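hi!! sorry for the late reply, been swamped w classes. u asked for the two structures so here they r. pasted raw, havent cleaned anything up. first the sequence of the first protein and right below it the tokens
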Amino acid sequence: MPLPGLLTAAGLAELREEVGRLERAARRRDFEMECMGGSPRRMTTLGGQVIAEMSRLVPELYADTELLTFLSGLIGETALPVSDPVERHVLNILHREGDTHGAHTDDYPYALVMFLEAPDTPEEGGLLEYVPDAASLRDLTAGSASARRTAHHRAGDAYLLRSDTTAHRVTPLTRPEARRTVLNFAYTTPGAAPRSTPSARRLYG
């Protein structure tokens, strides 16, 4: 679900400045995620536990009551912060040619993704590719091309994704100058069944 206008120009500028500072603590990741079918991770990341130590702005935005009320209205039930300090708010940066966030589903029901930087054109890669209500990651990686959906985003864009049942990935960057920097906020709901995979600890721990 696209959320145009969620980030104001002033809000985007403030988050960019904060993330520019946080990026200095981020770590490069380059591996295949075994629990997600061996899909690649070629990216630089920072987990929520470090963000919470370094930033007031990001945790305050994550738990903002107006934001939670807004998200609850969109999903039709109460959006709740997650208890996991690693996964609740993370920073994902694709900044080298070939960087990609391979096929996966998330541990929590909803992901709010906010773009601080993004490739200018779809041809530069960094596209969200997804299959809603996927039975497995194969629906995305080996399923019918007609079932896959693709979205290009620009800096300042945001979207809300049902991320535990939607198989999704970010396509590789195709130019060395391209960058894709996002803040990802994970939320749950009162009736959500607990789910845990090793993926978050591997990527952000």
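now the second protein. again sequence first, tokens right under
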Amino acid sequence: MQNLENKVALITGGNKGIGYGIAEALVKQKVNVVITSRTQAAADQAVKKLNALRGGEAAGIQADVRDLKSQQKAVELAVSKWGKLDVFVANAGVGHFGSVETLTEEQWNETIEINLTGVFHGVKATVPALKESKGYIITIASLAGTNFFAGGSAYNASKFGLVGFTQAIMMDLRNHGIKVSTIMPGSVATEFDGNKPNEKDAWKIQPEDMGQMVVDLLQMNPRTLPSKVEVRPSMPSK
């Protein structure tokens, strides 16, 4: 089992939901974490909670995954504070759902730009540092990356693309010693698509479960790579 203490991770969209669950799990393993958010206030609020855990140290920065330069600044923050970057978790995402007849051009563009192009930007920004550390890239995709459904044209396209992108960069980067995995969750109890998590979501995957999965991947023997991990609730909603 790999010791994660003093590793350094960057998590996009780490202020809430799956991203925060991953950040919390890593901080508890004494990993130092940079989280990004759309606003500095949201990042600061999450960082305050993470630092109260008294594990690894956390820092936050406002960054938009649609902007390559903002992703580079997030990497610079991690490297300036801790001298390296070991882990990149591409988590930030958005969902717009509806028939292709009613889906707007703006909704299509935002979905592709955040869920797919945004991951490309994150990878481009982090690869130089990850080559030095022989680090790990983990993308948060979805079961919607292999299972299409009515009303999912934009979301399916972005997640099908993300799964393919992740598997391709795994082939590109493994000779540099960089491991790459994609996690494809089903229903997760988060604020995604306007949901307000409460007791009715108890059957779903929880953000802390996603955090545990990331920890498990990072602790696995370096000789072994689970390149694509599907995860779903063990029991469906009644």
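hope this helps!! also noticed smth abt the second:
The first strand starts at residue 8 and ends at 11.
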